[in-house]
């Protein structure tokens, strides 16, 4: 359920981010509490809290005292922007590296991508 | 605040040094894992901390005071042990009644709910219970006592995977609602890894590792690739484990900053090391010349 | 104070704590009465008189006293580990358990005394049998039976608890020492009886020793057992 190649609290934060990106958690809407998250993911509440804290620090979530945490206005767009930047690093660069190793030239690669997308 | 602090704690029996100079500090309101192979001294440590046996030497403070014969401390401490003996004539309901009186924070509603969830036959003689049902008694007492300090020593012997998962869920739910200090000792490391905030590994009566689980996630690294590349990467370092298969090699190392990038640049595949795997590496590597505990702790 | 919990620990299971000893006692008493009735129906008044003398040493009452002897053993062997497991202190356990011993002694001594009074008043339940009115529980006035039975039960409990605690502490080696010491004592007694006329005379004179002196001896043994138990239990560890 969680990506185990990363520290657990980072994986927790990313899972919430995924939810915001796909609309499961709309802007201004609430996200699960630390304890709900801990119970659902079967992880230590401190870890869940740390993951949520990461998102609060990044401005993705807003803490409303006594009520809970909510998705910040504009968070979805900001997240998408950030993930786009990361996409280059995390997906395009390794793709090119592997392609080079296999002797696939960039133009050829682009054609392969178009072909795959059309399927 | 610190829930448990020991300094150079030792327990020697005639033939064996069950604990040999243990210095530890466990913070309150956390779930701590106490791990180790059989005979590592886990149970002895918990028996010392709950005043069941007496230390040979060293100091300990539990909830701020010496636990031995201390009503203040012991009434706020629950110790659920795998080997707990019950009187022959007892039924689970008898144990629960006594426990209800002995623990000031006892929650009877929770106890009733757990008895039902774990399908514990309350009125059956304890002698006739299965190993799993005996464990269920301990789990009910350990959770419903709501003791500020609760030790679970291998609390689910004989319980199947479903019941164990039930225990984790109940533990997490109740811990979230009523934060307290939990010390969980178990061999099911994979199952509990995500529940733990802090881990202590004992080996032959000594502390092999004492760290937060967050730190441990990057503490070790497994690299694999062509043997020559792996060995070049390892140059001058002592791996926790190294295996080869034909021209390929895999090695696990105590990781330092930059190792991950360096390995990637060297064209090696890298993989994280789970707590379970780290435990196995540390407790088996211990036989070799180096001291992996300090290696990891300083990483 | 959690001494209440310790007492509860010993008494929570009423059937085991009180029920069974009384049931077994009743069955044993019933058996004695049935045998007595058969003897009287066959042998008449002579049989009744004969039984009344012969049954002064009737050991049927041990159907009740026997399980109580085990009380000290189970207290240490079975209840102590659970008490400590539930976070009770040794001090709390010792005080609570001593009170349970005392309560037990008084409770069962009262039953025996009442039984004895009834037995004596009805001429051995109309049959001349003896169950309560024996040498083990005192053949004197009723208050002597009350004192003697309480004292004997209490002593047995303390000594049993002390022996069990010592066994847990030193294991098999204690048992060896214990049995060897007991064996030597018996050997010395037999040797004394066979070889020394003076010792023989001394043992003979024991028969005429006052009741109060005997009680003193029992009390001293009980006190020694209690002292040994309390000293040991404070340093007892749970395996």
If you had to describe this structure to a student in words, what would you say it looks like?
The complex is a heterotrimer of chains A (119), B (299) and C (239). With 119 residues, chain A is mostly helical. Chain A contains 5 helices and 2 strands. The longest helix of chain A is centred in the last third of the chain and has 27 residues, at 75-101. With 299 residues, chain B is of the alpha/beta class. Chain B has helices spanning 42-49, 71-74, 92-102, 108-117, 131-144, 161-177, 189-192, 213-216, 227-234, 259-265, 275-285, 292-297; strands at 2-12, 17-27, 31-36, 57-62, 77-81, 149-153, 181-185, 198-203, 206-212, 220-226, 241-245, 248-254, 269-272. In chain B, helix 6 (161-177) links the parallel strand 6 and strand 7 (181-185). In chain B, helix 3 runs parallel beside helix 5 and helix 4 (108-117) packs antiparallel against helix 5 (131-144). Chain B is elongated, with a radius of gyration of 21 Å. Chain C is mostly helical and 239 residues long. In chain C, helix 4 runs antiparallel to helix 6 and helix 6 (142-170) runs parallel beside helix 9 (211-233).
The topology string of helices and strands of chain C comes to HHHHHHHHH
Q: Characterize the biggest β-sheet of chain B.
A: 6 strands, mixed
Helix content of chain B: 25-40%
Please give the most extensive interface between any two protein chains, plus how many residues each contributes: B-C, 33 and 26 residues
The gross shape of chain C turns out to be globular
Poorly predicted tracts of residues of chain C: none
CATH class bucket of the largest domain in chain B: Alpha Beta
β-sheet strand percentage of chain C: under 5%
Beta strand count of chain C? 0
Total number of β-strand segments of chain B?
A: 13
- Radius of gyration of chain B, in angstroms, nearest whole number: 21 Å
Integer tally of domains of chain B: 2
Structural class of chain C: mainly alpha
